[in-house]
Specification:
The chain has 11 helices and 8 strands. By secondary structure, it is of the alpha/beta class. The structure holds iron/sulfur cluster (SF4) (2 copies). One iron/sulfur cluster (SF4) binds at residues 10-11, 14, 29-35.
Amino acid sequence: CAACGACVQACPARHSIQNGQHIYDRAGCNGCGTCAEACLFGALELAGYEMTIGEVMDTVRRDAPFYRGVGGLTITGGEPTLQADFATALAAAARAEGISVCVETCGYCPEHALLTLAAYTDLFLFDIKETDAARHKAYTGVDPALIIANLRALDAAGQATMLRCPIIPGFNDRLEHMEGIANIANTLSHARGIELMPYHPLGQGKAERFGLTPNKSLPEHAMPRKDVEALLTYLQTRTDVPVKVG
Ligand code: SF4
Ligand code: SF4
């Protein structure tokens, strides 16, 4: 930021220059983006904007030559089921044009939202963050019972899933958790695979950009490769579902 003050002129209610420093007050910001347009130094960025189904599909169609029969539309977030009606309409529109649809979800949502979406979805990328219920509650704030019930409901409906498992050193990089993941995968009929997703610290910088306080309890560095390999190797001995590192 060059402290030029252009954003202050664009939106004096939210921006100010104090002691030569740019101050941004997020409270009450309606996300119109006028200040970001006024900033010639690229210091402000509008993250997220509203689109219609037609506008999203225009973008999806532009990428169609790259799909080559294996790619398609991935609806992710945030959490797509928080906008379940939009996500379902978008998936239906893509399917109607023969574009395959993948949905990434944390699974913590009403069952009907997932099952409705499933009618137009080829694959769910389904988060499994922690298989110990007490730890899951402590780390995420919610009980995992609904998440697991939703995963089983999708499986019972014949829906293909890929279990996506973020691994964070000091939190869930335990063999018992790998055992828990295997136990879940082994009871599913349509699990296509398990993807271990080792921690990296890039999210910390992203949190700062959104005005959030970075979580100091998280590691500063990416997870060492040898630690990832050890968990991968163990998990592969506990299940026949294909496991890979994402
Ligand atoms: S954020 Fe951009 S427009 Fe605002 S003071 Fe800094 S450089 Fe100028
Ligand atoms: S996005 Fe709009 S409301 Fe928010 S700070 Fe910028 S100009 Fe003001």
